[in-house]
Automatic annotation (TrEMBL):
InterPro entries per the UniProt record, alphabetical: Formate_DH_dsu
Any Pfam family matching the protein: FdsD
Protein name: Formate dehydrogenase
Taxon lineage: Bacteria, Pseudomonadati, Pseudomonadota, Gammaproteobacteria, Pseudomonadales
Superkingdom of this protein's organism: Bacteria
Length: 76
């Protein structure tokens, strides 16, 4: 795993932890919105590819957020 991917995993998990106040689905929506707004396209692509291939280091909210990102991408 590249250092950049490791850093992205750490960042998305930190964002998820900070936004999770009990409702995992609502937190995942907020995380996905944050990533959509602030992350570069290449960063989003890397985290989506990681979740598709493995995803084992993503927490539950992060996994839900990445799934929402994939849905948004497919809808575009």
């Amino acid at each position: 795993m590249s250092d950049q991917l490791h850093h992205l995993i750490k960042m998305i998990n930190q964002i998820s932890t900070n936004l999770d106040h009990g409702d995992k689905h609502k937190a995942a929506e907020a995380v996905a919105a944050h990533i959509k707004k602030f992350w570069a396209r290449s960063m989003k692509q890397q985290i989506i590819e990681y979740e598709d291939i493995d995803g084992s280091e993503l927490n539950q909210v992060s996994r839900l957020a990445v799934a929402q990102l994939k849905e948004l991408r497919q809808a575009s």
